[in-house]
Design goal:
By secondary structure, this protein is α/β, with parallel strands linked by helices. The chain has helices spanning 15-26, 65-78, 94-98, 113-131, and strands at residues 3-8, 32-37, 52-62, 82-86, 102-105. The protein has a single domain (3-131), classed as Alpha/beta knot (3-Layer(aba) Sandwich). It is globular.
Length: 138
C-alpha cells in the first residue's frame, strides 16, 4: 500500500522539522509521499490513479489512535493506495470534498493546515506502531 498526502502549500518552520521527523519514523512501516501544490485547483490532478481518496475535514469522522490503527489495517486488507487531501487556510472546497471517498477529522477545533499535516503523519505513525505490536503512548 502506498500513501500519498496531497497538500496545499509548502511546509514551513516550525512545522517542517516535525514533518521530517514523522516521515523518517514512518519509512520502516509505511512510506509516505507528500505532494505540495500551490493552490487547491491543482490538487485533483495530483491524486494517484485508483487511490482511495480521504479528505481531512473538520466535519469528517474523528477517531481514537486505536481506531486509526483498525482503519489502517482495513485499508491494508483492501490493498488500495491511499491519498489524503489537506486544504490550505480555508480548508477544502465543496468540489474537492466531493472527490473524496471518505472524510476524516483530526478533531472539531480549527488548526493550522501545516499542523494538520504533522498531526496526520503522527497518527499514521502511531497506528503503524499499534499494528506492529510496538509500544505507543495512548
Amino acid at each position: 500500500m502506498k500513501v500519498t498526502i496531497a497538500v496545499v502549500g509548502k511546509i514551513k518552520t516550525p512545522f517542517a522539522e516535525a514533518d521530517a521527523h514523522y516521515r523518517k519514523m514512518l519509512r520502516r512501516h509505511l512510506p509516505v509521499d507528500v505532494i505540495e501544490v500551490r493552490d487547491e485547483v491543482n490538487l485533483e490532478g495530483r491524486i494517484p490513479p485508483r487511490s482511495q481518496v480521504i479528505a481531512l475535514d473538520r466535519g469528517g469522522r474523528a477517531m481514537s489512535s486505536k481506531a486509526w490503527a483498525s482503519w489502517l489495517s482495513e485499508r491494508r486488507i483492501d490493498a488500495r493506495d491511499l491519498c489524503f487531501l489537506i486544504g490550505g487556510r480555508g480548508g477544502l472546497s465543496a468540489h474537492t470534498l466531493g472527490l473524496a471517498d471518505e472524510r476524516l477529522s483530526l478533531g472539531p477545533q480549527t488548526i493550522a493546515h501545516q499542523l494538520a499535516r504533522v498531526v496526520l503523519l503522527e497518527q499514521l505513525f502511531r497506528a503503524t506502531k499499534i499494528l506492529a505490536g510496538e509500544p505507543y503512548h495512548a
